[in-house]
Model the fold of this input.
Amino acid sequence: MQDGVPGPLRADDPQEISGYVLRGRVGEGGMGTVYLSHTRGGQPVALKVIRREHAQSAAFRVRFAREVATARRVSGYHLVPVVDHDAEGPLPWLATHYVPGLPLDTVLDAHGPLPTSAVLRLTGCLAGALDAVHTAGVIHRDIKPANLLLAASGPWLLDFGIARAADTRTLTTAGRLVGSPKNMSPEHALGRRLTPASDVFALGLLAAEAATGQHPYGRGHALAVAARIAGTDREPPRLDHHPEPLRRVLRLCLAARPAERPTAADVAELCRQSLGTDGGRDLRDFGGWLPDPVASAVARIETATRPRPTSYTPTYVPTVRDPLAADWPHRIRRASAPE
Done:
């Protein structure tokens, strides 16, 4: 993948997964490979195929099935829905709607920080998405720039791979913390019980980084940053260089004590008020919301991922199982224009 545009398939890649004709490679990671495909109706999907070594683990398959079940419990604006999956086949896979956009970390590396208005807008929309997550009784636990896509239709939250029900008491696996150390809340870094307030803290970290390109707890090894986060009650981050009203949002989200942080719904409302919007309508008005270089890169991805003819005939046409699939085009249109 170059500049966010899916790359060509490799010689050893399959041409098809369960009837989904593969059009290109979106990315590859420790869990597996993500491919671009399309439904029969022409809607793009991101199809994540799990690596064979993981597929051979019964414990992993249980976790994978739980990931799918968790993702299906949650729906709302700015949450990328699961539309199909197979947790029992030789290689488990998961299909979500494909969002033609760039991860926030890629944008920060290539184009620098975002304008304050864009940061408030993405923070408010992401807070609204987290409100839906928390209402469903789920904690995301991995809010970070790599899991936020910036698209013409707004910001979209990805990856419920380590999400867990809100009543789960421990968040460690085989004695190690699960999550991204640089994006953990203090209680997460200390191995304590998490609540939805942990996601709100991580949202504050993401917003601060989006506004400056720098992590609010400084540079260094991920575990060193996590240690500084864990000690935030003694040495909170300096936020003086952030302009108001963003500074207020950050200060509230990054409160050391979970009980002192606002709810995700409160953060969304605060961002709406900070933008001077009326009734929440303009929070999802994304006309010109991205800087021109980012918008141009996103437009190239949109062009490259449109359906195109193929000479390959699938063994059968996939049937999308999730009823949210039918609503997805309308949801994007509603999110792209004022209501």
